[in-house]
Write a structure and sequence with these properties.
Layout: E1 2-9, E2 19-27, E3 32-39, H1 48-54, H2 67-78, E4 82-85, H3 88-101, E5 110-112, H4 113-120, H5 129-136, H6 146-163, H7 168-179, H8 186-191, E6 198-203, E7 209-215, H9 218-227, H10 231-239, E8 242-247, H11 251-265, E9 280-286, E10 292-298, E11 307-309, H12 312-325, H13 339-345, H14 360-374, E12 381-386, E13 393-399, E14 402-409, H15 413-416, H16 418-424, E15 426-427, H17 432-444, E16 449-452
Parallel strand pairs: 1-4, 4-5
Antiparallel strand pairs: 1-2, 2-3, 6-7, 6-8, 9-10, 9-11, 12-13, 12-16, 13-14, 14-15
Helix pairs in contact: 4-6, 5-6, 9-10, 11-17
Length: 453
């Protein structure tokens, strides 16, 4: 759990400042679960330049609660949480100073979004909160007020969590729980998980990820791990300390994340993931007569496939439909059609005679059109899919046929503005696995919106 906060002060000499406003949002890594916002009477005058900056003046604070009146609520909302702030050393110092005046030693682990942004957004010119939120297209109201700045920090922190592919932030959080002696039971873990689409991470006690998976129902899938009797399930049941997750809404983004994060984190129980995702592929090869023939073959990394399939039968079914759509010869494509298949696909058996009536160039142009339709080589497009909430969408970027990564956005401005879109993008490498996943998704999922540019 994270307590994301922002504090406005009176200004003045070091360690003599007083708090004028505080906002704390309790964030579970996915959504805000609690919040506390209040003006605070510092009992000392506000510096004039601070009044101009924040708009908070002495008169506004005359009837506001003093710090000792809100201290208990601050302790409650920050309990067992990591303090997150933009320039955390300042906010944490101010908070500790105020508690020290009350004779209480306030301590909590902290995370600074300035330091995280410098690591995870290295291309940024400035790391001030105002310039970062503009660069990332984060909507912001009430700049230099505690609530507005803290809420913008929540949005920024969520983007930083997305970009942390090595899961260093989450691992650090788990280590704080170990120090506190928190050891959840398997049933407690399952009950804490959502029945939604995303990627999940099974951690052992030192925070290390031992398994990564994706599911359309994370809770159900983890329950299967915890009740399974296979060797892998039993090992997971013995070693699991915590399960974290990232919702995606989009199954496509979940697949892409799972594929890449397994390569980065190398979980010990994900060995099966190193195998080819789709073992059967469709290739176009010329025969002795110069005709381009479609052939179903075992996936071969040395050759460029048109598209790939999880089984031979799936590939064969697709080839029937493709042949019909593009008026291709079944015999050239190696389909020995049975009577049952003729009835099933409403086609006629082919003896190859149809080829005599079609010139090689015309026939091959049909195959080339098919290849162009199925491949996204040299094309630039954005695939828009579901997001993690009703107000959000997921986007996958392909530039000149190369997969660049994914992002989540609330506003169309964030993807229509190229600079902002590239800033919020979670960069991913283009490889054989991601290309296969994308081709499969584009072929199968008709609900996704594809925008070419």
């Amino acid at each position: 759990m994270y307590a994301i906060l922002d504090i406005e002060t009176t200004g003045g000499q070091f360690n003599e400042e007083g708090i004028t406003e505080i906002a704390i949002y309790k964030f579970d890594g996915h959504e805000i679960v609690d919040q506390f916002i209040s003006l605070v009477n510092p009992e000392i005058p506000i510096q004039p330049f601070v009044v101009k900056l924040t708009g908070i003046n002495n008169e506004m604070l005359r009837t506001a609660p003093k710090f000792f009146e809100v201290a208990k609520r601050i302790i409650e909302i920050t309990k067992d949480a990591i303090i997150v702030a933009h320039n955390a050393s300042f906010d944490y110092r101010i908070l500790r100073t105020e508690f020290r005046r009350l004779g209480y030693d306030f301590e909590a682990p902290t995370l600074c979004t300035v330091e995280l942004a410098q690591k995870l957004l290295p291309e940024q010119i400035s790391y001030s909160l105002g310039k970062l939120v503009r660069a990332l297209g984060i909507p912001m109201a009430d700049r230099h007020r505690a609530s507005g700045d803290a809420l913008a920090t929540v949005k920024l922190f969520q983007i930083l969590l997305d970009k942390d592919l090595e899961k260093e932030i989450v691992k650090a959080h788990i280590k704080t729980e170990i120090i506190k002696g928190i050891t959840p039971k398997l049933l407690d873990i399952v009950e804490s998980l959502p029945s939604k689409t995303g990627v999940y991470y099974i951690h052992r006690e030192d925070g290390k990820i031992i398994y990564i998976g994706k599911s359309r129902n994370i809770r159900k899938r983890i329950n299967q791990h915890f009740t399974g009797t296979s060797y892998k399930c039993k090992k997971i049941q013995l070693e699991v300390f915590k399960v974290t997750y990232e919702l995606t809404g989009s199954e496509l983004i979940a697949l892409l994340k799972e594929s890449e994060e397994i390569k980065i984190n190398k979980p010990i129980y994900n060995k099966a993931q190193s195998k080819t995702i789709l073992p059967w592929s469709l290739y176009a090869e010329k025969n002795n007569g110069g005709y381009l023939c479609l052939q179903i073959q075992k996936s071969d990394g040395r050759k460029k496939e048109i598209t790939s399939f999880s089984s031979f039968q799936e590939a064969k079914n697709a080839l029937f439909r493709i042949g019909e759509k593009y008026q291709l010869c079944q015999k050239l494509n190696g389909l020995n059609v049975t009577e049952n298949e003729c009835f099933q696909y409403k086609i006629n058996a082919c003896d190859g005679a149809c080829i005599d009536k079609v010139e090689v160039e015309l026939y091959n142009s049909r195959v080339q059109q098919l290849i162009s339709d199925y491949l996204f080589d040299h094309k630039s497009l954005i695939i828009i899919d579901r997001g993690r909430s009703i107000s959000e969408k997921g986007a996958v970027l392909i530039e000149n046929g190369i997969y660049k990564g994914y992002a989540f956005f609330d506003l169309n401005y964030q993807i229509s503005n190229a600079a902002v879109f590239h800033n919020i993008l979670v960069a991913m490498p283009h490889n054989r696995d991601t290309r296969t996943i994308l081709l499969q998704a584009l072929r199968k999922n008709k609900r996704m919106k594809v925008v070419y540019f």
